[in-house]
Amino acid sequence: MKIYVGNLPYSVRDTELEQMFTAYGEVSSATVIIERETNRSKGFGFVEMENNAEATKAVNEMNNREINGRGLKVSEAKPRDEKPRRPRQFNNRY
Fold first, then answer.
1. 33 in a domain, yes or no?
2. What is the largest CA-CA distance in the chain?
3. How does pLDDT run along the chain (94 residues), one tens digit per residue?
4. Tell me, what CATH number does 39's domain have?
């Protein structure tokens, strides 16, 4: 099961995210989403767990848990809608 973890403190990285969920079972992967330009966390990430029962328990127990003063938003990840990307708009004014 893929789990969405939102409202993460910006200091959290992949290893810390994984450690938060290992208490509930084996974590296949844990990824904090990083902004390309600034190399800073976007404040959310994803955790994958093979065992659905363990993942469900993790979602239920981690949702609204406070980490560094921020209440986590944890839920089963929803499939991403594939939308066509819009071409980048450039301002041609001088």
1. yes
2. 59
3. 999 999 999 999 999 999 999 999 999 999 999 999 999 999 999 999 999 999 999 999 999 999 999 999 999 998 877 666 677 666 655 5
4. 3.30.70.330
